[in-house]
Amino acid sequence: xxxxxxxxxxxxxxxxxxxxxxxxxxxxxxxxxxxxxxxxxxxxxxxxxxxxxxxxxxxxxxxxxxxxxxxxxxxxxxxxxxxxxxxxxxxxxxxxxxxxxxxxxxxxxxxxxxxxxxxxxxxxxxxxxxxxxxxxxxxxxxxxxxxxxxxxxxxxxxxxxxxxxxxxxxxxxxxxxxxxxxxxxxxxxxxxxxxxxxxxxxxxxxxxxxxxxxxxxxxxxxxxxxxxxxxxxxxxxxxxxxxxxxxxxxxxxxxxxxxx
Length: 260
Hints:
Blueprint: H1 3-33, E1 38-44, E2 52-54, E3 57-59, H2 61-73, E4 76-82, H3 87-92, E5 98-99, E6 113-115, E7 120-129, E8 145-149, H4 153-160, H5 162-165, E9 168-172, H6 175-183, E10 189-193, H7 194-203, E11 209-212, E12 218-221, E13 224-226, H8 231-247, H9 249-255
Parallel strand pairs: 1-4, 1-5, 8-9, 8-10
Antiparallel strand pairs: 2-3, 6-13, 7-10, 7-11, 7-12
């Protein structure tokens, strides 16, 4: 065998080893890509007691339930606090994998989203300035101005009954802005989920607000994903939620913020 042939054989051998190594690396990369996905999950940025910032960290019922469920079901996620109005568009445009944001399960939302089992039963309340004596319930809303948060059950109720009651609607991006509008007398009343306003009045002794009348309806909050997408994440949420209710962790988390 001459020197040229020997070099050729060595080159072929080196290339073969390189190809085999490359195949092994590809398999490893594929396995890594197919490993545990890190989900992007939204919460409402300002929706105490479900999600709110305190001391540079987010806390609340939604935030802590999600954390406990993720630990039970062993999945990772990045929490993305944002205005509620942007959450459903974020889900339907695939920018978000899921959302836990005090989101009422409605037939309209089911057209574009899939929901978990209900994780909290809520209801809608009429809230006025504490010095307001003219509104004592739903029968007193005729020709009044109302503050609502975009995309919520409160805004839908106001929109559906705008003509019936002659309402004047003012839209806000978050709950604190709604509260301020009524406290300052800029609008006559606001529509808010009962547990949210009840918590506000419990922790804020300076609030110039009061709840009037009975709750208007009862709705379930649900964890949401885009319709037909992330069924695995939805199953993990449901499985984890069931475990938390069985082991007492659910009651422990909710009980920190809302009395039974």
